[in-house]
């Protein structure tokens, strides 16, 4: 029989099968029974084994055994049954085989603090005992099975859920997947310290072995301003003085999520030069829209930005401005914006209604340069003074508009001759006003009342021939001296509501003009 089996099965299987058949054959011939296996280690609440042989008159007994203090052995020949925390069942599965199963009759949950219920585990190691199952005929033991039970308490949530719905947290305050290692519903996952199903007692078992990184719940990276992220490669030397120490829960990345959508963060301050993207030309102008030329380029006028004068700053529709640019002139200018020609400004501009308008240039010559030259710095030198002709001193634009379009553009270009002994402080002026008709609209300083920072409105009374009077709107001004501080060259600035200001100017006094009281007045 062994030879036939060897021909039908591989050698690694045939030897085990032959031994099994021979073992069963010996058990039957000798009228004995055996447990297979005869020794088990139980780590769960269920244990299954088989009793093989002549099981017709066999009874099974279960008891808890302890090794002898002298010999350390266990007597396998006792058929005394005891009451244990296990339930023993048997099922006939063949003429010579019985399935034997032991089921732990005990709740494996961990007992809570001050809990009086005894059907729980007071310690994490819930069951530690040795069991003996004896197969007996009468009071004589025919075979025995030893089971070493070492079972730990189950980690289950303290409060079972009422349904199978998963509550998604508010993503404004925490990310959608705050605990990726939480893999089992309503069960505490071992070493997953962010699992909400784990009680305080559960966490004490593995709190020193928490899963690290994003899988362990640390899904939000540390912010760039955190002092803990400083490295020698990418942190400047001033980083320790400006970094912030804050708890990881106060993380700006949590605000990137809102109702399932992501909000692209706006770039913060940077020492790098910004990359400006050109705006696409538009057909209809709106307030604040850039004005374009006929070849889809920005229409530019020198303006001030961040304390500096930009030579080519775009002009915004319906945005008036008036600026001054100060230049230390040491030689005659040769290029824009101080040296220009009328043809440089006669360009075609898109009118915002599908057509175009041409800039009408009007030249004016300024002979009194006191408003433009605020200082002359001369040194003793044999070099003759330089004369710079046709220097562009001012560019004043008037944009006439109607609806969403520009009807015409007029430019007054003021030029003059500047004499250079060595160097001159030249103040050039640039302005743009948008007129709907021939008059520039003057906005109120508040309605009703005044707004802080708006000009105070005044009026002058004119008496007419028919004993009637009219009030013309005007403003109240203070001196605004330029660099030399003289009253003769000073300008005026309006008084603003709610803002205190002090101003004045210098008046040269000599013995000659002290007698001219009208001049002093």
TrEMBL record:
Q: Which Pfam families does this chain map to?
A: DUF1619_N, TCTN_DUF1619
What cellular component terms from Gene Ontology apply here? MKS complex
Positions of the Tectonic-1-3 N-terminal domain = 160-261
- What's any GO biological process attached to this entry? protein localization to ciliary transition zone
Instruction: Indicate the segments forming the Tectonic-1-3 domain, all copies.
Output: 284-435, 446-513
Give TM regions.
Answer: none
Respond yes or no to whether keyword Glycoprotein is given for this record. yes
UniProt protein name: Tectonic-2 isoform X1
Which species?
A: Scomber scombrus
